[in-house]
Amino acid sequence: MSDVVLAGVWGLVAGGALLVGALVGFAVVVPQKVIAGVMAFGARVLISAVSFELVEEAYDAAGLVPAAVGALAYTGGNVWLARRGARHRKRSGYRPSEAQPSEGEQGGSGAALALGALLDGVPESAVIGVSLLDGGAVSLVTVAAVFISNVPEGLSSAAGMKKAGRGRGYVFGVWGAIAAASMVSAVLGYAVVGSFSPAVIAGVTAVAAGAILAMIADTMIPEAFDDAHLAVRLITVSGFLVSFALSHL
């Protein structure tokens, strides 16, 4: 199997976790504390993977500026989408003030939610493809971290979409499209970025890492810690330990 195909397969595997989470979030009423717990675990696993697998390796060749650029670019896009109804796209709608708007409440919010999900997922998948450039083997730590974090993301967001009155077709259409976009993003990360110099590859990796960190802080951590309790803190530490252990296999 060629490396381009492998990049697509791993991107689809990681992005497909969003569909798994969305299925659970749409079909089952999940207690808020459980949503907070799985979101805390996923956020911490992803933070650790970004630190150990992406920023640390990219720093030597590209420094920290690209990571800051990635964070700024993500934040700019996120602000634009938030004003169009995607502010609470990863929220379960547990609190009325944090509920996703319905299309009737804010026209165009459905499209903004879909674009927001795409904005969140593309950097994660791109770095999966880029990781294949390092010796022809995908970073299983990165794939595992993105997969683990995508399950609670899909779960929480789908629960919020359902509460906002969006139907099954919209919910699974969005997450199915994002899973497909994850595959394409991973392929482009390998095929396009691979043609550049190591310094540019490191820079692209750092930009993606900065975007991922900004996404975690803006869309995952608030849902995880709004109802902070001892269990969430322990789960967060567990997420760090799992990611740390994976990075040392």
Automatic annotation (TrEMBL):
Q: Supply the source organism for this entry.
A: Streptomyces neyagawaensis
- Indicate the transmembrane segments per the record: 6-27, 34-55, 61-81, 170-193, 199-218, 230-247
Q: Which UniProt keywords apply?
A: Membrane, Transmembrane, Transmembrane helix
Protein's recorded name: ZIP family zinc transporter
- The organism's place on the tree of life at top rank: Bacteria
